[in-house]
Write a structure and sequence with these properties.
Strand order of the largest sheet of chain A: 1-5-2-4-3-6
Radius of gyration of chain A: 26 Å
Largest sheet of chain A: 6 strands, mixed, barrel
Strand content of chain A: 15-25%
Number of strands of chain A: 19
Oligomer: homodimer
Shape of chain A: globular
Largest interface: A-B, 47 and 48 residues
């Protein structure tokens, strides 16, 4: 039927939603959540119906997403027809029932996710089903491939292309800011993309932004990498796996992430990675709690890597306290830069050179860690970072003291003498967020005591920085309530607990005596 | 923070959604799907955030649901604070993990559903989890009770209160229009509520609407029942279980109904039913396919009934073809009225008197079916229906020929001589819907051949009625494609296959010889 368009000058967060009055919907024979095909001048979109009680009769309401796509103006006439649910809904329902999906079925779902043919209700049901029913490795591979197919790709026409990824979970993990320049300075290509914080105190993109711009286009990223071998870009602007951005919108409120593996690996495939180290921080306060869990996850990463033609090694790393001392975008950028300049915490240096070393060894460099240490200690890595900063549009002469830190500051002191028995990762992140991180770049915390340190009563164990005094106050209040540092020897010299697959040792000659 | 209200003069289908610009959301530290508390003059609502890219800064967009609740005007200033997810989300997540929920946890979820504190994403995830994990009978009971608690109730201050329900699935099932007047004429109270069609050709509310108004308030319903002992009201206007109306909005697009039992039984409890017969049409073309399935479902209904203090009996009924000949609102109303006046199809009469008889026996009447037949044959039931029609505001003198049927008519004829081997329920419903049912009351189909009938080549086997010729044409086209009546003895004299629990037979004296 013909209806007049009423353009709503707001967006529906990417969703293609259309509003019909009760009467109009009933005449069309559609209900809320049904689909309609909207046709205007030989162009059509499929939109999902929201039925409203008092919408004008004979009108169809369109959010900007749909009206812009059709190039439609207010009061113009459009043709509306009921449309069937997309075929992919059959496979969503099959997954609800517990069936395993085939590659083409998975691809159809992912295409409809990107095309916005599936509603929030349908997406949430699919993600929940994946969470409960689990995914076979075939399904994980199919999801990864479909997510790559439906996104943009970086084509550097070079090999090898190195990459690293952390599954996350510990605050203060600014390792990437050291690894990228070490690897790039060693002569290897590492086009790194990172995310911003969603629930953490800072993401790598937030940290790097205290040093230089991070919102690069694919073209800008290509130029930076061609010039410097590396980059530190924000992945969000690149549309590498747009399906994943939509899945995350659903996983976030539900606090489940069944799509962890395809989400990570599709983005690695999209930038053309051939060699990848995955950092799995492990420990009581980390995302992955046990070595057993870390090993199982490692094997999945390695298996999926083989299927996608990416060589993967995993580093199971010590994850029972924040890395380094700084937590919060600017504080962390400052600490990373200081470390590259020779003045950083030992654990950060150890972890960065160990992981960089693994990457170097994967592409044939001998004694990778030693090589990485040499590049770091010689100042080559620092110079490389400054090249990257310049190429991304920042000031290559930036010094740690140039990075603005919140001018509101408070200290938390020890209640008693003792040794630090634990540092609660989650609580540290909460306090940094309460202080304003990640939105207020200068906000965060600085740990003055870490695991196994001896502390005297009234000594400062934590500094809190904020840009606004109200935020500082509530962060101090939270710190006093949570007591994130537990008081009652030195792990920072061996950050990596395990390396998977284990480096092959020369096999002893097999002897069989008869 | 203080923001200015921008009122959007549209509804969000009951959802409490608020729109914030990217920047504003980021400053508040909230993402899409997070919650905010909106305060205006000592009143607050919790709303779910949708982040838009170009919404005016320092403004908060409010759909009518939220602005009306706050009594807010455009451009007025409101206080916005981030709000935590409601506690019920913990239990939604527990259900995703496969945990069994306790009564108070279920109640908290249902309250938040009704208060619109849960988003579509959260609701869809909950319903999907129920579908996959299943529900224990304790959870089903808790859901039923919570749905009653959060809705309106009918208080007739009388007992017994009789009711019947069909789980549905076969087209043309107008039994309720006969059972209500039979039971009411026998002197028992039967305050029947019914639904409209969602995916079927007609719901009982649609059918009755061809005879009299059905949108009654609780007060009007009470008045009609006090006057006539019965009513035939539309349940939708009564808010008996508002949680269920919201759940259905999510179950419908997903095509799953894990809440079938609490959905039905909460509404029965809400009208105060003490005795209930549940009709379970069973057969290849029905919703319930096998007698085994029907028995399992019966036992669940009976168990849940005991928990809710409703005596339940189930009738497993023959469901392999439509009931009677008419499918479509007006055609069915006409057939039901004719049957009450002595001229209806045998199977309809048989089923209606059998189920009415079960109800009468449950409240102590002997030979229930015989009694029901007597009430029907004597014209008492017809007079009672006319009383109800008058009380609901219709014309009590209405005759079958007064009911307007679509004036566009087509006949489908037999391709060959033969016996009717099957009638496809689903296809018959599709053809009736294609002809315009349920929206166009005069549209539908009339079966001229049913199971086991002998048919000659070129004889009419199906009539199609429509209000518009385009609809008639596409219905005829569909009928020729689907061929819903398969050609190649008489079941109408024994409609009920099984009765659960089986009527207890007098026990033989127990003998133990030593």
């Amino acid at each position: 039927m013909k209806l007049k368009a009423r353009l709503l000058d707001i967006q529906a967060g990417g969703r293609r939603i259309t509003i019909l009055d009760n009467e109009t919907a009933s005449f069309l024979g559609v209900h809320s959540s049904d689909r309609v095909k909207i046709t205007y001048k030989h162009q059509s979109v499929i939109a999902i119906v929201n039925v409203a009680a008092d919408f004008p009769l004979n009108y169809v309401g369109l959010y900007e997403e749909a009206s812009k796509r059709l190039g439609l103006k207010d009061e113009e006439s459009v043709e509306i027809q009921p449309a069937e649910p997309p075929e992919s809904m059959r496979y969503v329902q099959a997954k609800i029932r517990g069936e395993r999906l085939r590659g083409n079925e998975v691809e159809m779902i992912v295409r409809d996710v990107v095309e916005r043919h599936l509603s929030d209700i349908e997406l949430a049901s699919f993600v929940t089903s994946l969470g409960i029913r689990g995914l076979s490795m075939d399904e994980i591979e199919a999801l990864s491939r479909a997510m790559v197919k439906t996104g943009s790709r970086l084509n550097l026409h070079k090999a090898p292309i190195l990459d690293k990824h952390s599954v996350g979970g510990i605050p203060g993990d600014k390792t990437t800011i050291l690894i990228v320049p070490i690897v790039a300075a060693a002569g290897f290509v590492i086009p790194k993309t990172s995310s911003r914080a969603v629930t953490s105190a800072a993401g790598t993109a937030d940290r790097v932004e205290a040093l230089c711009p991070v919102s690069l286009s694919i073209e800008e990223m290509t130029r930076v990498v061609k010039k410097t071998n590396g980059c530190l870009a924000w992945g969000g602007a690149l549309e590498l796996a747009p399906a994943d951005d939509i899945f995350i919108q659903v996983e976030y409120p539900l606090a489940i992430d069944p799509l962890l593996l395809p989400s990570i690996m599709s983005k690695k495939k999209a930038i053309g990675a051939t060699h990848l180290v995955v950092d799995i921080p492990t420990g009581r306060g980390a995302k992955v709690k046990t070595i057993g869990e870390a090993e199982a996850l490692s094997n999945d990463f390695i298996d999926l890597g083989k299927r996608l033609e990416i060589r993967v090694q995993c580093a199971v790393t010590f994850g029972e306290q924040p890395l380094g001392c700084a937590v919060g975008s600017a504080l962390e950028a400052k600490e990373a830069l200081s470390t590259l300049m020779g003045n950083g915490p030992l654990d950060l240096k150890e972890k960065a050179t160990a992981i960089a070393g693994m990457l170097l060894e994967m592409v044939g460099v001998k004694n990778g860690k030693k090589e990485a240490e040499k590049i770091l200690d010689s100042g080559k890595a620092e110079r490389k970072l400054r090249e990257i900063i310049a190429a991304q549009g920042g000031d290559p002469k930036i010094n740690p003291e140039d990075i603005a830190i919140g001018d509101k500051r408070a200290e938390i002191t020890a209640d008693e003498d003792g040794r630090v028995l634990w540092v609660n990762n989650e609580d540290i992140a909460k306090i940094a967020r309460e202080a304003g991180s990640p939105k207020e770049k200068g906000a965060g915390v600085l740990l003055r005591a870490k695991l196994a340190d001896h502390v005297k009563k009234s000594e400062t164990i934590l500094e809190i920085y904020a840009e606004r005094s109200t935020k500082l106050e509530s962060a101090v209040e939270l710190a006093n309530k949570l007591k994130p540092i537990g008081l009652s020897g030195k792990p920072e010299e061996r950050m990596i607990i395990e390396r998977i697959p284990k480096p092959t040792e020369p096999r002893k000659t097999f002897m069989l005596e008869r």
